[in-house]
Amino acid sequence: MTTLAAPRAARRASGPPAALALPAAATLLALMNYCAPAATLADTARGLHAGATAQIWLMSSISLGLSAALLAAGGLADDHGRKRTFVAGAAALAASSVACALAPNALVFVAGRIAQGAASAALLVTGLGIIGASFGQGPRRARATGMWGAMVGLGIALGPIGAAGLTVLGGWRLWYWATVAASVLLAVAAARALEESRAERPRGVDVPGLATMSLGIAALTAAITWGRTGWTAPGVLALLAAAAVLLAAFVLVEARRREPLVDLALFRRPAFLLSVTGALVTGLAVIGVMTYLATMMTLVMGLSPVEAALVLAIWSALSFAVALQAHRLPARLPVRRLLAGGFALAAVGEFAMAGLAPDGHWWRLAPGLAVAGVASGLTNAMLARLAVESVPADRASMGAGANNTARYIGASLGVAVVGAVATGSGHDPAALAHGTNTAMVVSAVAALAYAALALVIRDRRPAPGPLSPVPR
To answer: For 201-248, where are the E strands, in sequence order?
Structure first.
C-alpha cells in the first residue's frame, strides 16, 4: 500500500501537465471573451441596431451570468466532478458563442452573453479547483496558481486587441466564431487529457442554496448594470430589494443545512476573508478603472480602440510577467503582507494615472500603468493561491467560486461607480478627463484601505482541515 501511495503523492505534488495547461488556457479564453466587447462595442451596436441603454447590456450582460454561476459551478464541480464540469463549461461556451455570432438583434446577443458568462464561470472555478487538487501545497502550487493569475492579466490585454483585429478582418461576429473554435478544441482536449477529481465526501445538491444564491446575485448584478441609467428607477429598486431578500434567504438556508453549498464557518477564517475581500476590491478598484480607461483614452485623447488597447497592454503585460514570477518570492513572506504591498502599489499606480487631459499624450499614463501592472500581477497570483489554500483541500472549486464571485460582483459595481464618477461632470473631453481622474483617486483610496486591512488581519491558524458543523 505504501508503494502505491508514494507515486500517487509524488504525482500530486508535481501535478500532471494538463492540469495546469488546460485551466490556464481556459482562463485566458474566458478573460479574453469577457473583455472583447470593449474594443468592438461601436461595431456591435451598429450591427444589432442597439441604442444607448442596450449598449450597456451589450457590454455588461456577461457579468450577470458569470457572477450568478460561479459559486454554483464551484460546488457542483467539487461534488460531481471537476473534469466533467470543466468539459461541460467549454461545450456551453461554444454553444453560447454560436448564439452571439448569429444574433439578429440585441436581445438575442445579450442572452448569448449571459450564457457565455455562466459557461465561463464553470471554466474559471473548475480550472482553479483542478490546480488545487492536482498540485500539493508548496512551491509547485505557488507556481501553478501564479500561472493561473497571469492568464487573468494576459486575457484582459489580448481580448480587446484580438477582437479589434478580427473585426477589421471580417466584422465583429468573427470574434465569436473564433471563440466557438477555441472552446471546442478546449472541450476535446480536456475530455482526453484531464483526470477526474472530486471531493472525498461528495455532498448532495443544495437546491435551495443554489436557487437563492444564483437568483440573488443575478438580481444584484442586474440592478448594478441597470442602475447606470438611474438608481431610483422602479425596476432598479425592485431588483435591489429582490437581491436583499434572496441573499438573506440564502444565508438562512445555508445556516440550517448539514451540507451547505457554502460553509458559513469559512467566514470565521481570516485567510478566507482576505481572499474574498481582496477579490472584491480587485473588481471594484482595479478592473472597474481599467475597463473604463480604454474608452476614456478614445473619448478624451482621441486614440483609436486598437491604440487604446495597446496602451493598456503596458498594464496587462507587466501583470502577466509578475504573476508568472510571483512564486519566486521568499516562502517566509506571509501572503497577507504580499497582498498589502500589492494593493499599496496599485494605489500608487492609480494616483500616478490621475492626470488624464484632452491635450495629453499616452505616455503620461505609462508610469502609472506600469506600477499598477506590477501590483496586479502580484495580487492576482496571491489571491489565486489564497482562494484554494484558505479552504479544505476537497472544496478547492468552491473556494475559487467564492473568490471569483466577489471579483466579478466588484467589477460590476466598479464599472458602474467609475462610469458614474467619470461622466458626472459632463460628456465633453475636459469634463470626462476630470471625472476619470476623480475615479482614479477614489479607486486608489479603496486599494489603500484593503492594504491596511490585510496588515491588520492576522491568521495564526494551521492549514485548513475539515470544517466544523455550522452552529444551529
So the answer is: none
Q: What is the pTM of this model?
A: 0.81
* 171 within 8 A of 47, measured Cβ to Cβ: yes
**Integer angstrom CA distances of residue 87 from 82, 221, 382:** 9, 26, 27
d(CA 15, CA 34): 28
How much is the pLDDT for 15?
A: 57
Angle made by CA atoms 142, 280, 61, in degrees to the nearest 5: 110
The predicted-structure confidence for 414-455, as pLDDT tens digits, reads as follows 887 887 788 777 778 888 889 889 999 999 999 999 999 999
Hey, which of 270-274, 300-304, 339-343 has the most confident mean pLDDT?
339-343
CB 387 within 8 A of CB 275: yes
Query: How many angstroms from the chain centroid is the CA of residue 435?
Result: 25
pLDDT of residue 102: 98
Helix axes 52-80, 207-226, angle to 10 degrees: 160
For 95-138, the pLDDT digits (tens) are: 999 999 999 999 999 999 999 999 999 999 899 889 988 887 77
Rounded CA-CA distance 135/186 in Å is 21
Supply the DSSP string of 221-282, one letter for each residue: HHHHHHGGG-TTSHHHHHHHHHHHHHHHHHHHHHHH-SS-SS-GGGGG-HHHHHHHHHHHHI
DSSP tag of 472: -
* Alpha helices (H) in 81-202, listed in sequence order: 82-102, 106-134, 139-170, 173-193
CATH superfamily of the 15-195+261-456 domain:
MFS general substrate transporter like domains (1.20.1250.20)
Q: Between the CA atoms of 319, 450, 117 and 165, what dihedral angle is there, to the nearest 10 degrees?
A: -30
C-alpha cell at 6: 508514494
Asked whether the predicted pLDDT for residue 8 surpasses 60, the reply is no
CATH 1.20.1250.20 positions along the chain are 15-195+261-456
Burial of 465 (0-12, 13-18, 19+ CB in 10 A): exposed
d(CA 28, CA 309): 16
Please give the mean pLDDT across all residues of the chain: 86
* DSSP label at residue 455: H
Place of cell 448532495: 204
Closest CA to 399 of 268, 285, 263: 263
Rounded to whole angstroms, the Cα distance separating 113 from 318 reads 29
Angle between helices 139-170 and 366-389 (to 10 degrees): 130
Report whether 408 contacts 394 (CB < 8 A): no
Let me know how long the chain is: 472
